[in-house]
Design brief:
431 residues, five-stranded mixed sheet, globular, 8% helix, 35 strands, mainly beta
Length: 431
């Protein structure tokens, strides 16, 4: 117990100051302190991995940590982009690490949670779940044949760990939320849901908040793993399109904000689970995690390609702007700028008050546009790539979209620099 308490006493301040877990802190507010570039000046550096990056970077001290779909967890110098170490797992690392007290935690598609020495990358311990998998259903999204079980190609993220109360908490494709001793890797408890859990849990006031692909959103006691309440999202028994919580929640001032694939953003009372308001998005998924700042909730959508800001208390719309392609990346708010990744390979910087585009940066692979995946104005050429709904054709089309440098990674803002990964295999640092 003494070891755990010592680790916890160092861990909490580190996380609060260093933006060293997904969305910055335990409640995943998506806000970052310090200056933010309102103009693009240059690429500070870009770091190659050789495979796509959907993991969102975190920073601890002067080190950036992130995962790669090449199966490695990376530590890179934030100033120079020089590799400090990498640690190989046996599956893609599509989660964001949590770093602090000399330990880095990350989940891998090999079904394990890794605890690594932050300085060397050496494995301290590993914890094995019951195994990873993606959400799947028959006739998913109208794909044919309708009686074929199909894994969802847009279920791209793994659950990112959150650390609190001396434990590491994370979800798994086996349908469980896990609590593991942060110091030793010893199992504490698991909470069973009805399907895949790839949303990242948020922690506030001794409670964990997270959603599942079973279309329920849960509040669970962090100490005991006992359910406090659950909230039911939309159902879609026909093609399983408008169903499931892929978005990770933000918890601010007693309210839980989360997106859902049923096209809503929900505001729920953190104590009771009672719905305060919902904001509908015209049948478009909300896979990104909301950012909460300046009494506003910022989020983006997939098919309708909307950037929106609504009043945090009422859900009333304040800003509505159109991007050019789907957005899964979660907004990052730093000062008076919001940063968002777009699946056409573009990072956008928008004004907090108006949502107007300040500047954008497009990766080279997107500019190359092999296979004419994008139209001349940067939108997806759906008529060309989605020419058939049968068998592997929609999966191939989705892979083409991912292959042009799509930005699933949620931006990190630190010391005036914006960090993010791309499916072109690079981690970027822009200023």
């Amino acid at each position: 117990m003494k070891i755990v308490l010592v680790i916890l006493s160092f861990f909490i301040p580190a996380l609060c100051q260093a933006q060293s877990m997904f969305r910055g802190d335990t409640n995943h507010s998506g806000t970052y302190s310090g200056p933010a570039p309102r103009q693009f000046h240059r690429i500070k550096w870009k770091f190659p991995t050789g495979d796509r990056i959907v993991s969102s970077p975190v920073i601890e001290g002067k080190t950036i940590y992130f995962g790669g779909d090449d199966g490695n967890i990376y530590a890179v110098d934030a100033e120079s982009g020089r590799q400090i170490w990498k640690c190989a797992t046996k599956g893609p690392v599509s989660s964001s690490p949590a770093a602090g007290a000399g330990i880095v935690y990350a989940t891998s598609y090999d079904g394990k949670l890794y605890a690594l020495d932050a300085k060397t990358g050496a494995v301290k311990w590993k914890f094995a779940t019951e195994g990873e998998r993606r959400f799947e259903a028959k006739g998913l999204d109208g794909m044919q044949p309708k009686n074929q079980t199909i894994a969802d190609p847009f279920d791209v993220f793994l659950s990112s760990p959150v650390v609190a109360q001396g434990a590491v908490y994370f979800g798994s494709g086996d349908g469980n939320l896990y609590a593991i001793n942060a110091a030793t890797g010893e199992f504490r408890w698991k909470f069973k849901t009805g399907d895949v859990v790839h949303a990242s849990p948020a922690y506030a006031d001794g409670v964990l908040f997270f959603g599942s692909w079973d279309s329920y959103f849960y509040a669970v006691d962090a100490t005991t793993g006992k359910e406090k309440w659950r909230f039911h999202g939309g159902e879609d028994p026909l093609i399983h399109n408008q169903i499931g919580f892929q978005s990770s929640p933000s918890v601010v001032d007693g309210t839980v904000y989360t997106g859902c694939r049923d096209s809503n953003v929900y505001a729920l009372d953190a104590v009771t689970g009672k719905e305060k308001w919902r904001s509908f998005n015209d049948l478009s998924w909300v896979n990104s995690s909301p950012a909460v700042a300046q009494s506003k909730v910022f989020f983006d959508t997939s098919d309708s390609s909307l950037f929106r800001a609504v009043d945090a208390a009422t859900g009333k719309e304040i800003v509505r702007q159109h991007a050019k392609a789907y957005m899964f990346s979660s907004p990052a708010v730093a000062g008076d700028v919001v940063f968002i990744g777009v699946l056409n390979g573009t990072l956008e910087a928008r004004d907090v008050k108006t949502g107007e585009l300040l500047w954008d940066y497009r990766v080279e692979k997107s500019k190359e546009n092999k296979g004419w995946v994008l139209t001349a104005d940067g939108k997806f050429n759906d008529a060309l790539i989605y020419h058939s709904g049968w068998r592997e054709a929609p999966i191939v089309a989705t892979d083409q979209q991912f292959g042009i440098g799509a930005i699933f990674s949620s931006p990190l803002v630190a010391n005036g620099v914006v960090y993010f990964g791309s499916t072109d295999g690079f981690m970027y640092a822009l200023e």
